[in-house]
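Action item from last week, closing it out:
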Amino acid sequence: MLDFFLLRRQRHQKKMMKYMRYVLNDHFVLVCLFLVGGLAFYYSNLLKQLSPDFPWSLPIVGIIWWLVLPFGRLATLVEPADMAFLLPKEKEMGGYLSRGLRHSLAWPFSIETFVCGALLPLVVLAKQVSFVHFFFFLVMLWCLKVGNLRIQRFACYQTTKKQTQQFMFLWFIVSGGIIFISLYSFAWLGTILALAAALGFILLTQEKDRLLDWSSMIERENMRLHRMYQFINLFTDVPEIEARVRRRKYLDGLLAKISFKQENTFLYLFARGALRGAIFGGLFFRLLIVGAVLIVSLADFRFVVGVSALFIYLIGFQMIPLYNQFDYIGATQLYPVAKKYKKAALQRLMAILLFAAAVIFSLFSLVHLSIFETLILFAVLLIEIGLFAWLYLPARIKKMEG
């Protein structure tokens, strides 16, 4: 079964790497570097302004570490057909699940390492300790995560639902207690307690000849993969995700404003796809909400301009695939509509959507900025929208068609 899991993992990783080529494209990486650099600069300036007696440093660190811990699900890589074909091998599935648990550690361990390192300066500021304590805190978080994944492994067996809920609640309370003990006393004490907690949960979650709950295990794995595919689907088409169309009756007034002319054929199609499609409509509204929340949380004019411009670009860039959204429909190939109208329709729709986003971002910026600064922000965003819709977008469309 060990070789079987390795084969499944290799196939899964190969599939994920194929999708990562689309997710980690040059534009997305550049935007992430810009965003991370800006946040790092903002965070470093914030640390310089905080005094050592700032009372909320340790509570903030403890709560964030505590909330990050549940992140990361057990990857079993099981498939619906396994319920029948792997049933004769059920007694050997314990080793298979343990291998899956070890495979599942990589991603949450990476996230916890990043979060622990990012928040350590607040701990150093509050307690006046050395950065060597980072390793004690990190091992503590890792051990607590092992306990969490062990409970998830236990949940794969029959008649464990009630116990799993009790263990998960106990783990959450114990983890919070250990984190705050380590922050307010000694870091090494938290590490020892976390090791003891991990060992305790390993002993408590022995399967003891229980039978696997195949249906529940397969359902959880499908849900885990579905969440991954939903994220990937923001960047490229994923066959595993079935696109849905939402009615959104409250937006009918916007579609009604498009006159029924031959040159507006693709404008109407693109507008319906953007407003009612789960992929593009959901993407537009999610980026709009995230951008607005970030703008409200920033008080520095330069950062507000940078974040606003960044999200205008992100919204526009992620909406570009709308150009080919209806190519699979044979009727669109038969329409007596010149190709120039198709490109003009996307440019017009993009300008309208980005203009609406610019208005919303400008209104939210009034929370911290003056009216004059907001007008400058709006002017900058209008210039960016013009450059994007009439310079960058035609070049991208030409590349897509070539």
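Closing note: The longest helix spans residues 371-401.
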